[in-house]
Amino acid sequence: MTTVNDSELILVLGATKLDFSTVRQMRKQLLSVVRHQNSVRLDLRNVEVIDSAGAGLLLQIHRVVASQHGVLRLHGVRAGVYQLLELLRLNHIFETHSVPVEPAALAIAA
Description:
Helix content: 40-55%
Distance between the termini: 11 Å
Shape: globular
Strand order of the largest sheet: 1-2-4-6-7
CATH class: Alpha Beta
Radius of gyration: 13 Å
CATH architecture: 2-Layer Sandwich
CATH superfamily: STAS domain
Largest sheet: 5 strands, mixed
Number of helices: 4
Number of strands: 7
Order of helices and strands: EEEHEEHEHEH
CATH topology: Transcription Regulator spoIIAA
């Protein structure tokens, strides 16, 4: 699901895995969507498993958004996903929130 309000793009990933088996097909689509955004909220509420390939994709998205002088915020980050980000020391790069994006924000569909 993609929702755009006046100032940011909100993406809710439907996949339960962000790993080697899913990243290849997600990469092109996600990067094309965030390419011209300066504020992106990526809701990971459904993501139960992440590996280094998934973390690499998050880093790529971060770099694309940062190149627009923007910020990537990760919402709905589960404990297991946060543990990997912490292990890779990416918790210092990403702004993370355990709470998913509020339903009211998602209702602003275009």
